[in-house]
Amino acid sequence: MSHISVLLHETVDAVLADRNTGIYVDATFGRGGHTRLLLAKLDAQARVYAFDKDPQALAVAAELAQQDSRFQIIHASFADMQQALNDMGVTQVDGVMADLGVSSPQLDQAERGFSFMKDGPLDMRMDNSQGPTAAEWLVDIEEEALANVIFQYGEERYSRRIAKAIKQAGYIQTTAQLAEIVKVAHPKWEKNKHAATRTFQAIRIAINKELEDIENFLPQAVEVLKPEGRLAVISFHSLEDRLIKQFIQKESSLPEDSGWGLPQQQQDTRRLKKISRVRASDEEVKANPRSRSAWLRVAERLA
Known about the structure:
It is a single chain. By secondary structure, the protein is an alpha/beta fold. Helix content is about 45%, strand content about 15%. It contains 13 helices and seven strands. It has helices at about 10-15, 35-40, 55-65, 80-85, 105-110, 135-140, 145-155, 160-170, 175-185, 195-205, 210-225, 240-250, 280-285; strands spanning about 25, 45-50, 70-75, 95-100, 225-235, 270-280, 295-300. It has a seven-stranded mixed β-sheet, sandwiched between helices. Helix 3 links the parallel strand 2 and strand 3 (about 70-75). The longest helix has 15 residues, at about 210-225. About 45% of the residues are buried.
């Protein structure tokens, strides 16, 4: 399956905010759908910088960079965005967008090891040029720590049973083997879902440090935004969405009055203004079922 960008027009329109020039960042290039539409709406003086860790995404981005001189790809995590931009002399930008979902090619290619739907080596690394594979990580992690990961990142109520079964199995080479181990250990799972859905999500999040990267990325995005610059982030599960929601809430709210000082002494530390929260339309969900769980949150940098 080719990758279909989720909430494509909504995200690009939100980050542009009726502008057609400036400097923009696509923090998660993927297969470039959002970047391409952004470039199509920008004038000749605009610049777009994109980040990605996936070697296959980088190859696609390199082709785009050859075709469009306004675009540059950076092989790095968005958790290192601010430093990478500063190294290139970019200190402020007009907009930052990020799509936190795993791209369809990653899920659909068995050799990447992300999905239990297609048997392949148990890898799951976004950047498969470095770091331990999921198979290696499962060997090294203690049972209790694994249970905590599955519970916290997968929100899986049977995490302890599953972790015990995984550790008893020894070295697990393939996605099909892991999926079967989880299925046997799982006493009850949700209708229309595979028993291993939550466990696979948890392991993927852990080995790629996805939530840690988001926590590092969000403050950097605010730092690099110009006043009235926009931040637009698409999330696909509750853990990601909660982080983004809480961050925007914190950055767009006045600090609570301690009760000790006079109201006029309270310092306004707000850096963001909430703009919108958008779900995929019924038409988009019908055309691309992977969009059904997507949320787009948009905020604007205050002066």
